[in-house]
Amino acid sequence: MKPCLQVALDFINGDRALQIAADAVAGGVDWIEAGTPLIKSEGLSIVRKLRKQFPRHTLVADMKVMDTGALETEIAAKAGANIICLLGAADNSTIADAVKAARKYSAEIMVDLLGVADIKKRVQDLESLGVDYLCVHVGIDEQMMGKQPIKPVQQLVKITTLPVAVAGGLNSETVVDVINAGASIVIVGGAITKAHDVKKATQTIKQAMTSKTKVPTDLYKKYDVTELKQAFSQVSTPNISDAMHRKGAMTSITPINKGHHIAGPALTVKTMDGDWAKPIEAIDQCTPGTILVVDTNGGTTAIWGELATWSAKKQHLEGVVIDGAVRDIDDIRKIDYPIFCRHQVVNAGEPKGLGEIGGEIICGGQSVRTGDWIIGDDSGIVVVPKEQAQEIANRALDVKEHENRIREEIKQGKTLNSVVDVEKWEKIVG
Description:
Layout: E1 4-9, H1 14-26, E2 31-34, H2 36-42, H3 45-53, E3 58-65, H4 69-79, E4 83-87, H5 92-104, E5 108-112, H6 119-129, E6 133-137, H7 140-144, H8 150-157, E7 164-167, H9 174-181, E8 185-188, H10 190-193, H11 198-211, H12 228-232, H13 237-243, E9 254-255, E10 262-270, H14 277-283, E11 291-295, E12 302-304, H15 306-314, E13 319-326, H16 329-335, E14 339-344, E15 356-357, E16 361-363, E17 366-368, E18 373-377, E19 380-384, H17 389-411, H18 416-420
Parallel strand pairs: 1-2, 1-8, 2-3, 3-4, 4-5, 5-6, 6-7, 7-8, 10-11, 11-13, 12-13, 13-14
Antiparallel strand pairs: 9-14, 10-15, 10-18, 16-17, 18-19
Helix pairs in contact: 1-3, 1-11, 4-5, 13-17
């Protein structure tokens, strides 16, 4: 079949989904998907609304059916869905019943292979059961860890004659790769639904698909471990805090110079009140782009000043974070170098050489190890454990992109409350 573009409406508020769908249709989208979160939050009434608003478009209900295949297929088809999605992990009896119900109600069955271990064996079963489409699906959580759908598509098209759909963080660059790999249905979510201009974003992706020419984009991408600096440089500390479930933020550590955004791996220093020997020695051990993070054991006597700042700048450190005191504030502001600290004082101590470089420390109430990622801006400092850095960077970008879309809807005349529908989603206490 000729490759078609399916937009995945993974919202939790129906009115937003309907508006985004209208903009995507204006941009040339072929199929409309009522995503699983949307169906779970709004019920099949949203499928009925989509069918009424878009009577000529193929409508996909991503039910992710695992049981009662016939019943769930029937109610989705009666609501207006042309294609109903089941999970490949479902029992054969569930899928067989769903196929029978689909035939009865003039619908089709797509099977999502998410979580299926033995793809080849499962595809043989699914073909014999009479399903209509197979879907390679790299879930959002897997995307955050860097998993890509290209290779699974290439493997799947070699063992099936059924049309293959693919979903997994696709954008105007990667849609070309999956089409070249053999995909027939290209499922795009965030690259359309989070766009500033949904219609234009849809048109751009359709253009890339039609011409098989990648259209470069800085948005809706997933970054690997070699691109963490680039990824973290695009997001704010509040974005990262949200991505970490409101964890990782240092307390009472603020910037001396406003307007800087720093991101880099930490080199840690443990010292005592007023002892500036180890912090100064550590500067020479830093590679360019490193952030020096210093724990002064609660000290209020300065262990840092103008001359140390010049040294750090000349060594190309990304910045310095000190849970303690800094002096020479006027001079540091003239240098305009990113220093974050707890106290600003006049008096300095002496270099005694107590402490250590490279060990685990506590800074701003957060545990920091050498190699952990430090991100700072005018809002403060967050610490990202090095083992989670790739995932958190990608999740923070996702947070930012969602906020970009909400901001656009507010600019178009909605209020924040009307966009997110706070009252609807307040926790119900019984």
